[in-house]
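[job 4471] stage=fold_predict status=RUNNING
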Amino acid sequence: MTLEELRKEALELNLKERSVLAQDLLYSLDDLSPNELHAAWESEILRRIDELRSGKVKGVPAEEVFRKAKERLDGDLPSQRTA
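[job 4471] inference complete, writing structure tokens
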């Protein structure tokens, strides 16, 4: 199977299946162990919480995030993907 054939089949999966596949592929690119990956994410989460609490960054209301996500899923916004 060629990469293009695999890509075409993957794009025919439903949203949940594509999401699981994408997550698995992204994890496969990381050289970290599961414990190291967990620690890295924990550190990132704590950093972001600190930025929010200090006022360095401003949060986005959930309603706005969900509205924009729905628009993108519905195809109303231009794709951010670069081919």
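[job 4471] summary: Residues 34-54 form the longest helix (21 residues).
[job 4471] exit 0
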